[in-house]
Specification:
- The structure holds three protein chains of three kinds.
- By secondary structure, chain A is α/β, with parallel strands linked by helices.
- Chain A contains 13 helices and 16 strands.
- The longest helix of chain A is centred in the last third of the chain and has 19 residues.
- Chain A is globular, with a radius of gyration of 21 Å.
- In chain B, 38% of the residues lie in helices and 18% in strands.
- Chain C is of the alpha/beta class.
- The two termini of chain C are 20 Å apart.
- The chains are: A alpha/beta, B alpha/beta, C alpha/beta.
- Chains in contact: A-B, A-C, B-C.
- Chains A and B meet through helix 2, helix 3, helix 4 and strand 10 of A and strand 2, helix 2, helix 4 and helix 11 of B.
- Strand 9 of chain A pairs antiparallel with strand 2 of chain C, so a sheet runs across the interface.
- Chain C: One of its GO terms (molecular function) is oxidoreductase activity, acting on the aldehyde or oxo group of donors.
Chain lengths: 387, 274, 181
Amino acid sequence: MTKKQDIRFIQGNVAMVEGAIAAGARFYAGYPITPSSEVAEASSIRLPQEDGLYVQMEDEIASIAAIIGASASGKKSYTATSGPGFSLMQENLGVAIMAEVPCVIINVQRSGPSTGLATKPAQGDFLQSRWGTHGDHGIIVLSPSTVQDCFDLMIDAFNYAEKYRTPVIFLADEIVGHIREKVVIREVDENEIINRAQPDCEPEEYKPFNHTENGVAPLAPFGDKYVVRLSGSTHDERGFPCSRPDNADKFIRHYTDKIEKNYKDIVKVRKYNLEDVDITLVAFGGSTRSALEAMNMARKEGKKVGVLQLVTLWPFPEDEVIDALINSKAVIVPEMNLGQMIREVKRLNDFNTVVQGVNRIDSMAITPKEILDKIAEVENESSRIFG
Amino acid sequence: MKAQEFLVKEKFPLFWCAGCGNGSVMHAIVRCFEKLNYTRENTVVVTGIGCWGKGDDYINTNTFHGTHGRALAFGTGIKLANPELNVVVLMGDGDGATIGGNHLIHAARRNVDVTSIVVNNLNYGMTGGQYSGTTPCNKTTSTSRYGHIEHGFDLSGLVAAAGAPYVARGSVYGIVQLEKFILEALKKKGFSFVEAISQCPTHFGRLNGMKEPAGMLNWIKENSVSVSSANQLSDSERENKFILGKFADKEKEDYSTKYLRVIREAKKIKEGGK
Amino acid sequence: MKSRYEIILSGVGGQGLVVGGTILGEAATMFENLNSTLTTSYGVETRGTFTKSDVIISKDEIFFPEVVEEDFVLALAQVSYDKYAKLINENCILVYDCNSIDPVDHLKARQYGFPITDAAREIGNIATANIISLGLIVKMTGVVSVESVTNVLKEQFSKKPKIYEMNLNAFNKGLEMAEQL
């Protein structure tokens, strides 16, 4: 059989780099940390081949600062880390939110807290990715479940970052980051790529924070004909510090609104067998793989089980989860933490639907069998409750 | 462009206390911008947090106001992504030399072509005069009321040891010399560093018997020695002096220039297959 | 072949098991239109402690990437042999390196010892044990074709003819050893 040129058998971490390059990223600054280090290694090889730049910084604080700086100079930029490094990045993540500088932060989750188990998977940063940095803000978080996602979804990550002038968290986990599987590295059409809007006004009229309603102002790069003031302090339309309460109110709402009010554009989910279900498994990232396997096994037993995969984690896909809660007798949430995503699901459950978790925090992937057992358990309970 | 035109006059009067040295350093910087024909568009002033971190409020080039201690890391990204820019990083001693000390030595080692100007007023001014990484031993601050028991960094010595091709220390008292150092630093290709010993009459001065600006300036003057005469002093004598002059001035290929070779090698590999 | 075939490659860090697994996966996905996943379990050490790779090759899409029911286990170190020998069932083939492993009798699995280390020495490089093992796996299971693996090796080492030759010899040696069964 002849070889298909565009098919590769590579790790998720490596596919992320190809996705980033396809999206137009040309700058990486990072600090190596397991299980994300392959992103750094592949970036250091691939970026200079595309006239991009790789720089290894002294820590994760400097890494995220450098990518924000590079993005302000007009280069699409990204970094990659894992739990301990992601914690270190939280303060400067706020700068990217406040100064509204696009960038992509890959977090390949590992078992925590603290150093935890460096080589083992977890999904314990689900809430940190939303609320890790201080102060009110909106954020976009995407989560891959396959190596193909690592490529394709990375393009979405950069597109959202550019379109909404926001950091985007690419919340992977050790399972997806380290697995090798088939991936198609396709040629990406120009029309698929979003680049940040550029101003067309006279230079003296340019204000980098003069936003449209629920949209963002064009962001000129440093070194162009515009003068750009960017700041992590509360600032006005021109970027000067401003302590007026009405100004603070306006901008802090803006950081949330520009994300939440574009929910329909940002939220992506995948639905498997949801047309006719008794039980819906709501999953994200590496655990989706266990859920899909469990679904197939359950279907073979004649059970009406479906999967709702949340690809966008934040903004939380409320409409889709509400549909699942309405249309199912029970919702099961398998996640590799003690119940972070299930909080969101329960928060939306005004329908008396049975909601239960399958949780593992022992550094091992949730097995399909564990989910099957939970399905059986919930069926028994539901038949008691609903007759 | 004239020096005055680099200032944001509408934001005057300056936020800094009467008698602060920051204004003098800022004027020296914009005079250098004029001399070097910098434009607002091709220059980025990067700041951290602290009194001197407010410097960008009054400069009308491109600006990036980041987080406490991290200005050099932002500046590194800004410069590496567009080596055509003039990147000038303003930091205080708390900002650049204490919380940001690790970034400082690594930036010096990495040799990215940015100019950093640290105003060293020997304490944290904005938060109320607590001791910093450069506060001299035995001095009083709002958190060392019984006398400071740590030793301050010899910042310029530190940065020179980390490999920076240009390092100089001046003082606000000797503003002409300081301006000359800033000019040389801006011209230097590679990482350049200027330390400006400055007065904080509101906090450090007040707690150390020098609450008048002139008092602290005089104290700086009286305790300043040149690099050459410092060589005659013992270690303990040196510690209580401000040693002014150049600590490094050499040619060293900067990161961006070197990286062009990385790109060339990488492309060779790519074209040659695996 | 079964629609889903599950292989464990086990030994200690530094034996090239991930490389071996990757070659199998590449052969399956890039040359045979099959699906494959490779996941590796390891500690923070780089060398010398227990490691295993799970290779799954399937006609269907693979969701859960861990081996649930082994079809084939390769053990290149005593520690990994001891871990799997008693666990696996009668449908599984267990292949071990008889130069470095003392086997246990009366296993449920069908087990076969091969002098893999000796063979690697004969090839001229102890590091070819993983490629010799690939020959054994391919011959004994037919999970991918000989041609596909050869194609992968050719591509991998296209710029290094000597290394290609050594690896091809190693692969052929494995095929040969399995033939003699």
